[in-house]
Description:
The complex is a heterodimer of chains A (544) and B (299). By secondary structure, chain A is of the alpha+beta class. Chain A has 12 helices and 26 strands. In chain A, the strands form 5 sheets. A 6-stranded mixed beta sheet of chain A has the order 2-3-1-4-5-6, sandwiched between helices. Chain A has a 6-stranded antiparallel barrel with strand order 7-8-14-11-10-15. A 6-stranded antiparallel β-barrel of chain A has the order 16-20-18-17-21-22. In chain A, a hairpin with a 2-residue loop joins strand 17 and strand 18. In chain A, helix 9 (458-474) packs across helix 12. The mean pLDDT of chain A is 85. Chain B is α/β, with parallel strands linked by helices and 299 residues long. Chain B is built from 8 helices and 10 strands. In chain B, strand 1, helix 2 (36-49) and strand 2 (58-61) form a beta-alpha-beta unit. In chain B, helix 1 packs across helix 2 (36-49) and helix 6 runs antiparallel to helix 7 (262-271). The mean pLDDT of chain B is 88. At the A-B interface, helix 2, helix 3, strand 2, helix 4 and strand 7 of A face helix 1, helix 2 and helix 6 of B.
Amino acid sequence: MTELTRYERPLLKFITCGSVDDGKSTLIGNILYNSKLLYSDQIESLKTESLNGSCDGELDYSLLLDGLLAEREQGITIDVAYRYFSTKKRSFIVADTPGHEEYTRNMAVGASFADLAIILIDASKGVLIQTRRHARICALMGIRHFVFAVNKMDLIGFDEKRFNDISSDIARLREELSLQEYTLIPLSAKSGDNVISRSPNTPWYDGKSLIEYLEDTDTSGDNEETGFYLPVQRVCRPNQFFRGFQGQIESGELHVGDELTVLPTGETARVKQIFSGFNEVEQASRGMPVTVSLDREVDVSRGSVFTRATQDDSIKVAREITGTILWTDDEKFSIHKDYLIKLGTSQIYAQVKSIEYTIDVNTGEHVATSELSKNEIAVCHISFIDSVAVSEFNRHRTLGEFILIDRVSNMTAACGIVNAIHDSDGKREYTPQNIRLHLLRQKSGVFNFGGLGSTADQETLGRLAGEVEQKLLQQGRLVYYYRNTGAEVSREVLRSLTESGIIVLTVKASPESAEYVKDLDPALENTGTDSIVKFIAEQTAYEL
Amino acid sequence: MQDLAHLDKLEAEAIYIIREVAAECEKPVMLYSIGKDSSVLMHLALKAFYPEKPPFPFLHVDTTWKFREMIRFRDETAVRNGIQLLVYTNQDGVDRGINPFDHGSAYTDIMKTQALKQALAKYGFTAAFGGARRDEEKSRAKERIFSFRNRDNAWNPKNQRPEMWKLYNTKIEKGESIRVFPISNWTESDIWQYIKREKIDIVPLYFADTRPVIERDGNLIMVDDDRLKLRPGEKIEYRRVRFRTLGCYPLTGAMESDATTLDEIIRETNEAKVSERSSRVIDHEAQGSMEKRKREGYF
């Protein structure tokens, strides 16, 4: 076989994960060092830095990866590091991820990027909670190939029985998580047994060395999906004669003349031109960034998805899903908070309506709860303010992955995948009115004190309205007590205030304003402000 | 179905990122340092939007100490590609006579870091593309593709936002900004392969030629103009050299080489015994020096 040049070699993206001190960084450092992939100045600084470290002057490979000052000071990995290397057969990008529970979200960042996961297990400790957590997150993020690297075999005298015990624990975990493809390799990251080549210390092991396994794993079919789709990233208008749509083909092929369906509108048009880079082409396929123009004017903007009417219905237009999410924010989940969902190239307001359950990372048990904090996994219902093109994660990845962004802190609060799509109950329009409803989380309304033949005087009613205003504000409602200072309550003002989404309180509004006004029951006035507040809160409650 | 080849995958990833920023960020700019990575980045931007021109300007932070050939190349490139090029220099630093010979790391801070901050503030840019790659240096290997800067332009490596799949969260508050690195996952070797495949023009300094150099502190420094004063014992020699990276001429070491074609450069790169940044004088100072500078706002 002739040697492939670097850019012709197939690329494998993988991560190393597992619990703290299971030797992730050491393993990668060992591969880089022993594959002669380091430059001489990097080796020199590794030698110098190792002298100051905790390895008694022996080379501390983890220093090759723990590049942040805080990591070196504490001797731990905080964030994911990416390294690039190649062997004669394959190019690799490896993401070395942190083992501490506190930094799980950084580990998940690495997992979202990888095709294969190496999960390290300390042979002397066996399968730990963190091993199970990481395996679960890898499976959640869509990784299909797993290597359980049973490390530190040298510390237990390369004991075959111990290895077999761990192997049966992993078999159970595999079943629980329905892992697709997995293997176990006994190794020592520090001394190199079974890392690059097979070790004489494990004569009872007849499998591949780690590097051999990485070189041979076939990932080419992993992202195979049926049908065609292209989420539109942006509209390109270089001049008044050309209107093109730019995005990446996520699945299938595209040809000039193809009839496309535009989601969510459902309009159709034919492909007029395809640009790939600086060239006009007749066809393009999966993975390619393109610019497409159509034969007629249709409503297309960022977030639209091109697909074909003739293919299966796995891409749907909907505004409600069930998803599995990993909470990544330091702040706990709150049902009262507003989020933006980013899914494909759509980004719109969303609401987590309910949490079905969280998943105990250790036992896999479902726990009924309404609480959710950092690094927890939960299944929940999410609805959007408008319909978007969406798919189940196992059908079309790019339309089945999403993140939730906290609207106030801008933090990426969660990442998740779509398990199920719920049919739309009619399309809601993305009007300013609807957006305000969602932003303010309330329906507007005018509440009139002293209608319906109330006998209370102006002054009492005014005081009551003032108190109700104060209490509603404290509950987080946007409310305004509109004081009629002698003159009539203006119908026009009430209309404007209502349209702006505010809850309005008035006293003795005139019959002309009746169109906007809800008279409060005089009986309520007698039961006090709390009853009125409760009544108004119920009247103006809004759910997406 | 055949998977895309390695370079096509890297290209697609970069173009996707560049388009996302153009679609979501309020006021982006692409930093242009004239080097090989910047040349690749500009090429990717031209490709990403074709038949439209990139919908943002390019910015060169000029320290006034770049190689003369770089400046000539920069101005020709802007015209050839029909892009909008902004050039910014920290005039206060120039007036104070800040230079790489007398001021060491203060020079880098004032003429590069401070100049960049001033330029971003002057134009109100909210997102700046850079050509940094993760294989260059250990703290870069830790950085996200979308890297956030607070109001003081500082990076907080201990609390980076999660970055999942290709769902980039571009939300920021007023005064904050984002650095975006579309070629994070490229290696030095990928850059050269791509330059060759796409026939991208690069500064001739990357190719070997006979050039006037002196030996100083273990580096070969090219005498690009008369601002470089010879120290006792130093003498100008004409040697066949080229540059592996390009920066300010007094701070950039040349390497002896006969490589005059891209194929020869690629062969040299793949056989290199020392890393790319070893020719940058400022990087060796102390462990973590790159991270420290980045926390202060260096690109």
